[in-house]
Design brief:
Blueprint lengths: L6 E3 L9 E2 L16 H4 L4 E4 L3 E3 L3 E3 L2 E3 L2 E6 L5 E7 L5 E5 L4 E5 L3 E7 L10 E5 L2 H9 L11 E2 L2 E2 H4 L16 H10 L3 H8 L12 H14 L10 H10 L11 H16 L15 H11 L3 H6 L1 E9 L5 E8 L2 E4 L6 H8 L3 E7 L7 E12 L3 E7 L1 E4 L2 E4 L11 E2 L15 E11 L7 E8 L4 E6 L2 E4 L2 E3 L3 E8 L1
Parallel strand pairs: 17-20
Antiparallel strand pairs: 1-28, 2-27, 3-12, 4-5, 6-11, 7-10, 7-12, 8-9, 8-11, 13-14, 15-16, 15-19, 18-19, 20-29, 21-22, 23-24, 24-25, 24-29, 25-26, 26-27
Helix pairs in contact: 4-8, 6-7
Length: 486
């Protein structure tokens, strides 16, 4: 694919051998059985095997309990519902959190319901017997909770990272789906997004409303709560998006940026809790009023993480009348042209642009020229920068292979901020992921992702199902960058 491109070093250690994933294993269904906990409880811990994989992506494990209090801890994938039935058949359904406490009486049975992907069930359920005196003591504690700013590792909370494992799991190619795989890998290495999604509490019995989010949740669970190197098959994610937009059906290659924008919008719409619609606001409204108006119809955890705000000022060349708009953005598409650094791309994006055929309100509909300039007002938690490497002219697509030198640490947006921006807002970012493209056009060639993995504190290259540590970013191939606010 052409000559050797310039590269930027990420670490001085030698590059390790690739970690290759293999096709997922199929688990056979087992007959349902009941196990008495008191007969096999050793060292206050019971590991019970999964006893049934039921139709409809439902997983059940049924156990008999003696009277006591237990802590139930689910293992990949997480069980979202716990149903407790007493000896009289009365059932109560509980939300199963990561450390759920249950009290069972003699003759009670317990059923777990969770999501199983491709009949791949977890190997065990861990049930730990709690010391009752310890439990009572822990409930009686009234010590105040002191909130303090938590240390971040490239946008990842340190307390969250210490609970993670894995991070080197690839994604199986389902037929020219490298554009999808690279995008998904980049997203699931953005700390604020992963943390927020894995902490989501879905309303009871309404999972059907959040199918796309649940599919993302399942993938992240496998990536960050399992040391398995078996490639995950994102077939459910693909099928769900095809139902929303048929253009992603089949095995045609697609533009990764186009897919990214569509995926984030679909997730946002699924999780959007806003019940109002934006209204028409006066022309002289400030940036905060524009933002509040946008928030009226757009309120989701996805929007809170990825959406920022830009200021667009257009000055009439005839009368100098200025029109200002403060619009939301999900990503910044910056020109590459002759740039050699990311800062040059950003400077070009924020430079004045002469436009023709402008209809100025003050000039009463007379077409004229005008100057347009863009600046940033509000910085998102995760900043996505799209390098506009592709251009079309007379049906011919050309790619700009400029070697763009990146800023991996302390990328500061201050030079590109609007005078309407808050002076107290942090504008510094760390690079956490990039999507690479090799080939002549966005819909041809091959996509990969390079991502920072907090559990290993190293960068990894994700090439579909193959994962390997990497020391370098290929400057001429980088297409989309993911920065996290620090």
């Amino acid at each position: 694919m052409g000559g050797v491109s310039s590269i930027v070093s990420l670490a001085e250690e030698e590059q390790q051998q690739p970690v290759k994933s293999v096709p997922p294993l199929q688990h056979e269904e087992e007959e349902e059985e009941e196990v008495a906990v008191e007969d096999i409880l050793e060292d206050n811990e019971f590991n019970g095997k999964v006893v049934e994989i039921a139709p409809g992506l439902e997983l059940k494990a049924k156990l008999n309990f003696v009277w006591d209090t237990y802590t139930v801890e689910s293992i990949d994938p997480i069980f979202d519902t716990l149903t407790l039935s007493d000896k009289n058949g009365k059932k109560s359904e509980l939300k199963l959190e990561q450390d759920a406490q249950i009290t069972c009486v003699q003759g009670s049975s317990l059923s777990f319901r969770g999501i199983v992907y491709n009949n791949q069930a977890p190997k065990s359920i861990t049930i730990k017997k709690r010391n009752r005196e310890e439990l009572v003591h822990s409930k009686s504690k009234t010590s105040p909770v002191v909130e303090k700013e938590e240390a971040l590792i490239r946008g990842w909370k340190a307390s969250f990272v210490c609970c993670l494992k894995g991070g080197a799991q690839g994604l199986a190619n389902l037929g020219n789906t490298c554009y999808m795989n690279s995008t998904l890998q980049a997203l699931q290495h953005c700390g604020p997004f992963v943390h927020s999604l894995l902490e989501l509490s879905f309303p009871k019995a309404k999972h059907s409303q959040y199918r796309l989010t649940t599919a993302m949740y399942m993938m992240m669970q496998r990536q960050w709560h399992s040391k398995s190197l078996v490639a995950f098959r994102p077939l459910l994610l693909k099928n769900l998006l095809v139902k929303i937009n048929g253009q992603f059906s089949g095995t045609l290659q697609h533009d990764a940026h186009e897919y990214l924008v569509f995926l984030l919008d679909a997730l946002h719409e699924e999780l959007n809790v806003a019940r109002k619609k934006p209204v028409q606001i006066p022309d002289n409204s400030n940036a905060q009023m524009w933002w509040d108006n946008y928030h009226l119809g757009n309120d989701s955890v996805v929007k809170d993480i990825f959406v920022g705000q830009i200021c667009s000022r257009v000055t009439c060349g005839s009368c100098n009348h200025t029109s200002t708009a403060y619009d939301p953005f999900w990503s910044l598409s910056v020109p590459v042209t002759t740039a050699t650094t990311l800062e040059q791309c950003m400077t070009s994006f924020c430079s004045k642009e002469r436009i023709s055929g402008y209809n100025c309100d003050a000039c009463k509909g007379v077409e004229t020229t005008a100057d347009k300039q863009i600046s940033i007002v509000r910085c998102p938690q995760v900043l996505i920068v799209h390098l506009k490497r592709f251009s079309a002219n007379m049906g011919t697509v050309t790619k700009l292979g400029n070697e763009i030198k990146l800023v991996t640490e302390n990328f500061n947006l201050t030079p590109y901020m609007s005078d309407a921006a808050s002076t107290q807002e942090s504008c510094s970012y760390s690079l956490v992921a990039v999507i690479n493209h090799e080939g002549a056009s966005a819909k041809h060639g091959h996509y990969t992702a390079d991502c920072y993995v907090p559990t290993t504190e190293a960068w990894h290259n994700y090439d579909d199902s193959t994962v390997s540590r990497t020391q370098y970013l290929q400057e001429s191939c980088i297409y989309i960058l993911f920065y996290v606010k620090i």
